[in-house]
Amino acid sequence: MSTRVFIFGIAFAAAALAPVVAAHADSRRGDQRTVDCSSHDYERQRCNVPWRDARLVEQLSDTPCVRDQNWGVDRRGLWVDQGCAGRFVDSRGGRGHGRDDEYGNENAGEGWRPDPSWNRRFSVTCESQGNASHFCQVDLGRGGHASLQRQLSNTRCIENRNWGSNRAGVWVSQGCRAIFSIDRQWR
Q1: DSSP 8-state symbol, 73
Q2: ∠17-52-88 over CA atoms, to 5°?
Q3: Which pLDDT tens digits describe the chain residue by residue (187 residues)?
Q4: Beta-strand relationship, 77-80 and 45-47
Q5: Coil, strand or helix: which one is 41?
Q6: For the whole model, what pTM was predicted?
């Protein structure tokens, strides 16, 4: 009798933990199986898939999902990190009709779009401590840019020398500490 209770307890615990996995392999996109995989609280999550490779087909988070930065596929399966949430499909399932962006994400100009309030201006403080390089992650969007709003350091901050930006954020080095104005544009 105690063996049955023990086996029932293990089965119950396994069933209770199963929903914790962030993958939902029952979603469908046309005739291809898709998996929704989400990084909660900016922590790495693994989603069990039988695939050797995947493609992002739909962005589900405000954080941009960039292959090999905050999502990828390794021997243990699909993984997402740093707030990335997306819908993924087996890359062997054939290419979609959308175009890929510079990060290898499908349908770069189509599909998910942020709320209109996403395009806005705001400030970000980014600081190089002890002359070390530092990257401040903030999504500028395709058409966005950063500019020096107010310098905080004694070291003069000079664009493309000890500070700069790209679509993913602002970088500083060599003691540059400043408040940067971010003009975020989706385009």
Answers
A1: E
A2: 65
A3: 555 555 555 554 444 444 344 444 444 444 358 899 999 888 999 998 888 888 898 999 988 999 889 999 888 889 999 999 999 998 776 444 344 444 445 444 445 667 777 788 999 999 999 999 999 999 888 788 999 999 999 999 999 999 999 888 999 999 999 999 999 887 6
A4: antiparallel
A5: helix
A6: 0.43
CA 16 to CA 23: how far, in whole Å?
15
Task: Show the beta-strand stretches assigned E in 23-82.
Answer: 28-29, 32-38, 45-47, 54-59, 71-74, 77-80
- Indicate the DSSP class of residue 101: -
Q: Phi/psi of residue 120, each to 5°?
A: -160, 175
3-state secondary structure of 12: helix
Cβ 131 vs Cβ 173: under 8 Å: yes
Q: How far apart are CA 34 and CA 116, in angstroms?
A: 27
Which two tokens mark 89? 């499909």
- Least Cα distance to 59 among 115, 116, 107 occurs for 107
CB 120 within 8 A of CB 141: no
Buried b (16+ CB within 10 A) or exposed e, 63-74: bbbbeeebbbbe
Q: DSSP alpha helices (H): ranges in 60-168?
A: none
